[in-house]
Structure formats: structure tokens, C-alpha cells
Design a protein that fits this description.
Layout: E1 7-15, E2 19-23, E3 29-33, E4 46-53, E5 59-62, E6 73-82, E7 85-89, E8 96-99, E9 112-120, E10 125-129, E11 148-156, E12 160-165, E13 169-174, E14 188-195, E15 201-204, H1 210-226, E16 230-231, H2 239-246, H3 250-262, E17 266-269, E18 272-275
Parallel strand pairs: 13-15
Antiparallel strand pairs: 1-2, 1-4, 2-3, 4-5, 6-7, 6-9, 7-8, 9-10, 11-12, 11-14, 12-13, 14-15, 16-18, 17-18
Helix pairs in contact: 1-3
Length: 283
């Protein structure tokens, strides 16, 4: 099915004086205007295109690929402000409109804002909104503990950062579990800690459980090996020293050190830890 607001790879089935007919594997079709088609395009070629509405409401394809598809999020810059609303540059020659009633804050020309791309059911027109919390799924959350997910921080609070998870769910990462700089609108990788009764999802920036130990085991082992077998730090070092050297919490460091110690790989020495066994096999 060819969907408005989505990127598709389609096949050229016909060509005429003004357009190319593109089809998917099911035989659904859409037209690509000849004025915007690649110059060497021919029948049977495959082409990645974005599906959109023209000014008359017709459905067309374009080879211009936007920064975001429908039902996803992007950090977009304001290109112009009119009586109809706010137009954002989203990577195509046709700017994306956010109507005035879809904003949640003052919008300034040239500034960038996190937006959700939406499709209006009645008109099939694409628009942007800052009211994306209205679109979060709260029932039947299809996530599991320890799962690796894509997250976007969108609001800083006294507790931490509110998150968009996999373009579908709302979550939170807490300040006391953040050990690196977080920027609003930046796409990051996180890990599911807990799905709460209020339909929010607690997220960690580091792997959870045994996966975290294994990852930090490798990290600490490689750091020791690359430094010649010695590091001037141990389990009595301060959290700040450990974070400055490794970018992880003291607890994560201690778990990784314990795993290496039990494997017979390291020992504490004066002023730090030393690698005593190489080419170790992990459980």
C-alpha cells in the first residue's frame, strides 16, 4: 500500500510527456511529475520517493526525501511565519506547515523545534504539531525490560528528561542515572528498565542487568589492555574520577571490576588496578 507521508521504493512502469507512473509490488500506483524526476529515469528503474499532496489535494511522489515521515519526530528549523501558521524546513522544496493552534510555545524565525509529523484524516494533508503527547500509545505497550530502543529527550524536568520512545511511547530518564550530556531533540539509544502502571516507561542510557555487566566488562578489559595493563583507578576512587575516565557510574565500574576479578583477569595494586590475564573467556 502506498501511504501519504511515507517513503517508498517504487518501480517505474510507464512514462509519458509529463510524468512517470510508479508502482509497488501489489500494483498500487502514483505519479511522479517529470519536472522533478531524475534526468536518466526510465521504465523498470527503481526509485526511492516520498508521497505527498499537491496544492489541489492530489497524491504525488517526489524524489526529495524529508527529514521525517508521518508519525515520526524531527528537530526542524522555522523558515517562515505567516497568518496560516509556521513553515518549517524539513528537507524538501515544499515546507511543512504547523498551524497556529498546534504550537505550545513562542515560535521564532530561524529557531529549531521538536515536532511530530501528522496526517489529517479528513483532508489527507500533512502538518506538524508540538502537541505530540496526544499521540503517545498508552495501551498494550509493546516493549520488554532490557530492550534496546531509540529515544528522543523532549523536555527537561526536576526529575529528569521526558522521552519519546520508538516514536510511539512516553518515558523518563532520571537525572541521577545520567552520566553524560543530554541534548533535547537528539536521537539516542536507551534500554527499558521498567514499564510503569501509569503507562510511562523508565529508561536507562546504559544496558540493564547482565548485558550491562558484559558490556562494561569488555570496556574495562580493553581499557586496561590498551593502557599497557595498568590504570590509576580502583573501586575506592570517587564517582567523579570514574566518570571522568570511563563515562560510567561507580556502581557499573565496580560490577565490571568484580566480574574481571572473578575471572582472574585483574588485581588491585598500589595506586590502581593491573591486568594479570589476557585473552579471557567470558561466561
Amino acid at each position: 500500500m502506498i501511504q501519504i507521508g511515507k517513503i517508498h521504493t517504487l518501480t517505474v512502469s510507464e512514462e509519458n510527456s509529463s510524468a512517470f507512473k510508479l508502482v509497488d509490488q501489489a500494483g498500487n500506483s502514483v505519479f511522479l511529475p517529470g519536472t522533478i524526476a531524475p534526468k536518466d529515469l526510465k521504465v523498470d528503474d527503481q526509485l526511492k520517493v516520498f508521497i505527498y499532496n499537491d496544492n489541489q489535494g492530489g497524491i504525488l511522489a517526489t524524489p526529495e526525501i524529508p527529514f521525517a515521515e508521518v508519525d515520526t519526530f524531527a528537530f526542524l528549523k522555522v523558515k517562515s511565519i505567516t497568518e496560516f501558521g509556521y513553515f518549517f524546513d524539513w528537507g524538501t522544496s515544499k515546507d511543512l506547515l504547523m498551524p497556529g493552534n498546534q504550537k505550545k510555545e513562542d515560535i521564532r524565525l530561524g529557531q529549531s523545534y521538536l515536532l511530530r509529523v501528522c496526517l489529517e484524516a479528513e483532508t489527507n494533508r500533512l502538518f506538524a504539531t508540538q502537541h505530540f503527547e496526544d499521540y503517545f500509545e498508552i495501551d498494550n505497550i509493546e516493549l520488554r525490560a532490557k530492550q534496546k530502543v531509540e529515544i528522543i529527550p523532549y523536555q527537561k524536568t526536576p526529575l529528569g528528561f521526558k522521552l519519546i520512545i520508538e516514536n510511539r511511547y512516553s518515558g523518563m530518564i532520571y537525572h541521577n542515572e545520567i552520566f553524560s550530556e543530554v541534548h533535547l531533540g537528539e536521537r539516542l539509544i536507551g534500554y527499558v528498565k521498567k514499564i510503569r502502571n501509569d503507562h510511562l516507561v523508565d529508561i536507562s542510557l546504559n544496558p540493564v542487568g547482565i548485558a550491562a555487566v558484559r558490556e562494561n566488562f569488555d570496556f574495562l578489559y580493553n581499557a586496561l589492555r590498551d593502557s599497557g595493563g595498568f590504570l590509576p583507578i580502583d573501586t575506592y576512587s570517587s564517582p567523579e574520577e570514574i566518570y571522568q575516565m570511563f563515562g560510567i557510574s561507580k556502581l557499573a565500574f565496580k560490577k565490571a571490576y568484580t566480574a574481571l576479578f572473578k575471572a582472574g583477569c585483574v588485581e588491585k595494586t598500589e595506586g590502581g588496578i593491573r591486568l594479570i590475564k589476557r585473552n579471557v573467556q567470558k561466561d
